[in-house]
Amino acid sequence: MDFVAWFDIIIVAAILMLGIKGILNGLIKEVFGLIGLVGGLVVATRFSEVAEKFINENIYKFDNASMLQFVGFIALWIVFWFLCILIGKFMSKLVALSGLGFLDRFGGFVAGSGKIFLVLAAVCAVLAGTNLNSKVAPYFQNSKVYPILMSAGNWIINVDIKNIKNEMDDLGIKRVEPNKTDIFITTDENASNEIEVNATKGE
Fold first, then answer.
1. ∠ at Cα 105 (103, 108), nearest 5°?
2. For the chain, which ranges sit under pLDDT 50?
3. What residue spans of the chain are helical by DSSP H?
4. Which keywords describe this protein according to UniProt (predicted)?
5. Which of 12, 27, 78, 173 has the most beta carbons within 10 angstroms of its beta carbon?
């Protein structure tokens, strides 16, 4: 059995094992752990420069900018993940007496499997963006799992929070800009025109 086949088997086995662990933990802890992983990745992608500056000025001064960037990214990701885990444990205790039963365990399996899948996907995507990609990629050409991990990892890394907000605004959320007298009311796409009320008319 070649390397690629073993890789696919190990990845699938790891996902199933973490899914079983999720059954034992229940949905609440797994969901917050998943939020910590995905949210931490997004937060680290957007705000790693803040972490880099803090680390460089208060913890350790790096001479290598690439190493500082890597450490800042990982540190911010881990901190966010740890905070979500603590919140998850607290919430789990609050709902311990709710008796969610089968749904709680089934949800834990889905969340546990999804968590390890997203971690592996993110790792693959990050490695693909480094100089190691040219050396590593040829080994996974015949893999069935690696392309799926890459696709999911690229999607996570490229999540654009601002774009999501803009899309929500386009759905018809009313927005009033402060310090301006013009009020814009966003209407449905099928409406004829955007209504503009000019409060400064007559000046």
1. 105
2. 173-203
3. 3-25, 27-54, 65-94, 101-128, 133-136, 146-157, 161-170
4. Membrane, Transmembrane, Transmembrane helix
5. 27
